Amino acid sequence: MNYDALVNENVNRNAFFLEQFEKWLKDKNLSARTIKHHMNNVDLYINDYLNYYEVTLMEDGVIGVEMFFRDWFVRKCAWTSESSIRATATSIKKFYECMMMLGFVKKKNYELLTNTLKKNMNKYIDNFIEYEMELADEWF
Q1: Do 128 and 82 form a contact (C-beta atoms < 8 A)?
Q2: Phi and psi, residue 54, nearest 5°
Q3: CA gap 84, 124 in Å, rounded
């Protein structure tokens, strides 16, 4: 199977998990706008980032979050800001909480993800600021 076919297979597989997540968010009585933001953030992570370098299953995405925020998100997403980093981290955390609650992700892996995000959030933001300063220097 070629790479594009593997990506499409994984995206189709992820559609099920995204449906479960959306239902879980609706059950929490979140606004449609908030749900849309969470869905878009998670879709970016599991369908774009986790398939970017090689096809990675959603379940294995708990270990990819570090490089996503330290590198890929900052370089590939023009809208990156301090608030988008925090919002995307929140969405990913909620998604994997849902996946853990539904039995698709082990509790220890969810805890690894949440600890990684909590421990490194300031580093992700500092890295973003540094990247922005480097870009600004290139322009002038």
Answers
A1: yes
A2: -155, 160
A3: 11
Asked if 55 and 10 count as a contact pair (C-beta separation under 8 A), the reply is yes
Tokens representing residue 120 in the block: 């490194």
Q: Residue 19 is encoded by which pair of tokens?
A: 């449906």
Structure tokens at 66: 């570090």
Domain boundaries, the chain: 3-139
Q: How far, in Å, are 12, 75, 105, 138 from residue 60 at the CA level?
A: 16, 22, 9, 36
Give 139's pLDDT tier (boundaries 50, 70, 90): low
Assign 3-state DSSP to the chain and report helix, strand, coil percentages, each to 5: 85, 0, 15
pTM for this one? 0.93
Burial (CB < 10 A; 0-12, 13-18, 19+), residue 135, is: exposed
Could you read off the pLDDT of 43-85 as tens digits, one per residue? 999 999 999 999 999 999 998 899 999 999 998 988 899 999 9
